[in-house]
Amino acid sequence: MKTRLPKQTLDNNVILLGWVSFFTDMASAMATPILPIFILTILHQGADKVGLVVAVATFVSYSMRLISGYLSDRYGIIKPFVVSGYTLSALSKPLFGLMQSWQGVATLASLERFGKGLRSAPKDALLASYSASKHEGFTFGFHKMMDIGGEFSGSLLLFALLWYFGQSESVIRALFLATLAPGLIGVFLVAFFVKEPAKKPINASADASTKQGKKTSGIRAIVTGKTLTSTDKSLLPQLLIHFLFVLFMFDAAFFTLRANSLGVSTMIIPLLFMVSSGIQTISSLAIGKQVDRFGPQKVLLFAYAMGVIALLLLLLENKPALWLAYAFLGLFTVSSFNAIRALIAQQAENKGSMYGIFYAGVAAFAAAGAYLSGLIWHHWGVTTAISFALTGTCCLFLLKGASNK
Asked: Which CATH class is domain 11-192+229-404?
């Protein structure tokens, strides 16, 4: 018997945004697995440059996540940020295929992350606005399922193309160019079919400040707390623990570098990403339901445990453990994002601003973590880099467990 999703929990705009993310992440999955290999084997750079590219790209998105989240709350304008962000990402990824230096790759990766930063907080605010009360976990679980379903499909397509056409430089460059097609489909859907929600009133405290001639810029307003209520501010310590965990947790690029160090061929790399994205696809909706049932905090603790196990498996020098590491990476990713996004949807009053803080914090701490991991890997080796990540994540897992009691 065919199971139907409860109508009251999934608005048509949520479903459409799911498809937008599906095609956008299909494009990303065709580029992300081979980008570190492109830097290492075609541009002839080291792991430190991979870490630097990841760090610069994620850090660039920092300010835009704050500003776009603030402005969507301040003026009640959401869709233009979402459309612009998806468009910028769709147009920047294909250009990787034309680059001849790691600096060019870093610039394009920054531009692509700029687009993601522009859309991320407003998109989640849009999802929250179309989510039924007490079903936020289900809404974000569905969206993440579609998101990662796109990643799985893109990884599968990438593997098939590498298997059929080979792994030469010309093929890899052509694969980057091919990401334009799914990227533009996502832009078309969000531009012409997703609706702008009803405009919300301007934040009362911000409006009062404006009338008194005390205008404050987007980033400064959020950093100084001028846009946040006491309820919003109560979420900040919980977000800080997550930011610190992200600092120590390996980016997917370093999982790819580990696979390369174990002798895994470029053609097989997409299959490893399929393990991660496949796990996320089949578990996201169920995890979203558990968020609604047990609360975001317990699911977040589960996510941290999955991250620690993924790093432990990376420490083992064998390929079967590597495959399992990608699976646990998938569980960490889907559980942590579903839990945090639902937590903000349930408790925050200025949702756009809080999503902006969340994504900005993740970007900033992930950038610092990628840079540190790349330096440690390059100068002291893979074992030291993984041990550094494990030490930090284990301590934060214990801290989170204590704070949940």
From this structure: mainly alpha
